[in-house]
Design brief:
The complex is a heterodimer of chains A (131) and B (295). With 131 residues, chain A is α+β, with helices and mostly antiparallel strands. Chain A has two helices and nine strands, in the order βββββββββαα. Classes of the chains: A alpha+beta (131), B alpha/beta (295).
């Protein structure tokens, strides 16, 4: 299957770097998905979740508070300010990532509705990881 | 005999100093490695941000006749007021590290004074702040514990004042002066202008063919938000770079201090041995002459 290269970069380093099947991004004007051979595009991201569909079809979520994304046909570069990947070896690690992610969201956004909807989403993702 | 004891005491004190400097050197080496790693990781972000900014700026510049409207790219020939942000260390004992930055800042102040440009000084780092306070140079604001523990959030808050004032037209340029890391043994003094962003180097004819067309309104919005991040990030990077440089400077300073202490112990030991030999000789002469006189 065709893949695209994804890089998620924060000021303190790379959060994600690898080939993925697709990626869903929280755009300024609404969520949008990117598949391989997407048209070139540069846009802003708002606080939310980046869902990454990896090559083994598992989904990884990364919570971001702000960002710019540059999409071209075979590569997606996401520049973010703060990001937390929801992943971990065991339950406690995942729970910790979840807490960090929520804190990041609270700092980034004033709107409670936005926070709640994103929080619900990442909790769902975390649940899936645990079971 | 008094002399002997004196020398012995000196040797002891110098070797304990040597122990301290050696420990400080080791600590700095470890810290340097960490700071270096941090700087390396964030360099990637800097590269990408610059790329994106360049690309967008280029598009906005080339699509619009008369250049970009945003003040962030304005070309100001005769600035009336500038912000100078300097970064020094919080601690001393790192050779000429802080002094180099201070000197550069003073030179800048003099240069601006000659051109009759007003300036505001904003300081990060205890050493620089203390220096300018002592010399009664007015600082707009001073942050003391940021340079030893760089933090993106706090760096962003700090520079935000300058960004706001710049957009409101209160100031016409923002400079950051700091001593950056070049390699383990050299530091490099850097003066960077973060605002206005330099776009002259971008050439419209080199623009890559892109399939993309975004509405201009979107561009401006994105550009503004990106530039804010870019400036904040530059501030943060200056802090990281400065920390790495500080540790490398301290490492060197402590290394040479350790070597000097070693030399000193060596020469003191020679002195000690000579003095001891001398006292033995005197004693022998005394005994011999005593025996001689008894004959």
């Amino acid at each position: 299957m065709e893949t695209l290269k994804l890089e998620v970069i924060t000021p303190s380093g790379l959060i994600f770097n690898g080939s993925v099947l697709s990626v869903t991004l929280p755009g300024e004007e609404g969520e949008f998905g990117v598949l391989p051979r997407h048209a070139t595009l540069t846009t802003l991201l708002k606080a939310g979740v980046i869902d990454i569909e990896k090559e083994n079809k598992s989904i990884e979520s990364v919570v971001v508070n702000w960002g710019v994304v540059q999409v071209d046909e075979e590569k997606v570069v996401v520049l973010v300010d703060g990001a937390v990947a929801i992943r971990g070896e065991n339950e406690s690690e995942i729970a910790k990532a979840l807490d960090d992610a929520k804190r990041l969201l609270r700092d980034a956004s004033d709107s409670n509705i936005a926070i709640a909807s994103v929080a619900a989403k990442i909790e769902g993702a975390a649940q899936k990881l645990i079971y | 005999m008094a002399n002997l004891k004196e020398i012995q005491r000196k040797i002891k004190s110098v070797s304990s100093t040597q122990k301290t400097t050696r420990a400080m050197k080791l600590v700095s080496t470890a810290k340097l490695r960490r700071a270096e790693e941090l700087a390396k990781r964030s360099r990637l972000f800097a590269q990408k941000t610059n790329q994106v900014i360049a690309e967008i700026a280029l598009r906005v510049k080339c699509q619009k006749v008369g250049g970009i409207e945003s003040r962030a790219f304005a070309k100001i020939d005769a600035p009336a007021m500038v912000d100078i942000i300097f970064v020094t260390a919080d601690k001393g004992l790192c050779g000429g590290f802080n002094m180099q930055t201070i000197k550069a800042v003073r030179k800048m102040i003099e240069g601006h004074k000659e051109k009759k440009i007003k300036m505001r000084l904003r300081g990060i780092g205890k050493k620089g702040i203390e220096y300018f306070n002592y010399n009664e140079v007015e600082l707009l604001d001073a942050v003391k514990d940021l340079s030893s523990a760089p933090d993106m959030q706090r760096a962003a808050e700090f520079i935000q004042t300058s960004i706001q004032d710049y957009y409101e037209g209160k100031i016409d340029a923002v400079y950051i002066v700091y001593n950056g890391y070049k390699n383990v043994i050299t530091q490099e003094l850097k003066t960077i202008r973060v605002l206005p962003v330099n776009v002259d180097e971008y050439d419209c004819s080199e623009q890559k063919q892109s399939m993309l067309e975004i509405e201009a309104e979107d561009h401006e919005k994105m550009l503004n938000s990106l530039i804010e991040k870019y400036v904040e990030y530059n501030m943060y990077y200056a802090l990281i770079d400065s920390v790495a440089a500080e540790h490398s400077a301290r490492m060197q300073a402590m290394d040479s201090a350790t070597n000097n202490a070693k030399e000193m112990v060596k020469s003191l030991k020679v002195k000690f041995n000579k003095a001891r030999q001398e006292s033995i000789t005197t004693e022998l002469i005394e005994i011999i002459s005593g025996v001689e006189s008894m004959k």
